[in-house]
What we know:
Elements: H1 2-12, H2 14-45, H3 48-51, H4 65-70, H5 83-91, E1 106-115, E2 121-129, H6 131-136, H7 152-158, H8 162-170, E3 185-194, E4 200-210, E5 217-227, E6 232-240, E7 244-245, E8 253-255, E9 258-262, E10 268-276, E11 283-292, E12 298-305, E13 308-327, E14 330-347, E15 352-360, E16 363-371, E17 383-388, E18 391-396, E19 402-404, E20 407-411, E21 414-418, E22 421-428, E23 431-446, E24 474-488, E25 491-504
Helix pairs in contact: 1-2
Amino acid sequence: MIGQLAFRNITYRPWRSTLLFFGFGVGVAVMIVLLSIGDAMLSQARNEKLVGGGSITVLPEGLDIEVMKTGGIGGLFFSIDHASFLYHQALASPRYRGEIAVVAPQIEGRLLYVRTADGQEFAVHASGDIPSATEAVGAAPEIVEGKWENDDGDRRWAAPAPFELRNEIDHFHLPSDSVANRDTWAEWHYFNVLSPDRKRWAFISFIVGGDVTGTKWGGRLGITLREQNGTTRRFATTLDRSRVRFSTTDADLVFGDSHVVVLPDGDYEVRAAAREESGGRGSISVALRVHPAPYAYFPGVAMGSGGFVSGYTVPALRASATGTLCVDNRCEQLNDAQSYHDHNWGVWRGVTWDWGASRAGEYTFLYGRVYPGDTSASIPPVLVYLVDSLGFRAVFRPKMISYEDGRTVTTAAGLLRVPSRASFEDSRGDDTLRVEMTVEDAIATDTRPRRETKDGKGDGGRGDPLGSEKSHPYFIQMKGTARISGRLDGHVLSGAGTGFFETYR
Length: 505
């Protein structure tokens, strides 16, 4: 009876019945698809090979998650730059200790090539992780035989001692094959130290210059002493390469009787001695122990194209210096004086930059950008790097620095206008930062090669071996105060302090 009624209803309204059947079929099909997708997602969520255990997976930006699952050309060369820094300055840092229980860095199925002693080559897939961390997130493999535990390399990667960290990021380099004119290569350790009354300071540079892969290179130790709005004294000594020792595996640098040495506790021992330039009779000797604040460092960045290479790292963004600074045999004792240390390498002829580093209350910030000698290159944005007592805090990228040239300094060519104030600002989502700098003192150095004039006094150029006839030949070194404001993670950002800044005019 029911079947007869259904048949008659279909024959009575055939088009309506067909439409209902079609709609019902589509609904069932959609439900099947949704259930299949849900089952696949649940299966993937439980798949250790996809997520590597734990609750959250962090992947390189822009990587298709399916590439991680199936493998593909887009997954051959992916990487997370400065992964070790990201590990202990962000994910595993003390800042998030109450929110993140454990972090397990892992590499899955990386394509490598193994070459045997007889010259055969094989393509292999290799994986890497830190055993204790992988086990803690529930992704440990089943061990059939042997041991699977942390070794010393795992410890150095995840929790390097201060001594190991300094040598890892502060060692010297060799010019790459892309550098055509290796005579323009230079690399140096730079330190500055500020007196307790903030009226006197010293810039100390240990510079290795020239083609260090050949025989035409050497060292130059330079020390600049400055009294605020007063006198500038420059001391220097040049050394043959036979008296210079540098290493691509550690940060130690020997310049004859002077040196920079990383001590077992991670502090720097800086000893330097030089004679006054330009025929002066004075002398200087420095014996300092520079103590970097924990977590306050910039891990380093290297960029390059078309033969241009520029590398930079800051092992001691916030530091204190203790020791003696002796000028003309009169010594001053420094105790926990404000200090700073960075390291530069690359091709520098014709290169200019904006740079600065300053304390700002509980914060310390670093900013900078490099202008290659190629004037057709685009102007890069400014990089601003902010830290506090727990390390890395934020990165901002302002498009420009606004300078107010309200000061003048005297040069051999006459008066030169230099900055009296500078500022920049940026927003990243809800986070904002504004930095305002007030210049209290400035000195200008003519970086062009020295040319003799009729009176025999020269034109003011200092004969900088990396100088050039660039449009902004004067290197401006400034000291002043910086004030930061804005909001970060919903909290007010505020602080002020003393710092050093550089630009060109």
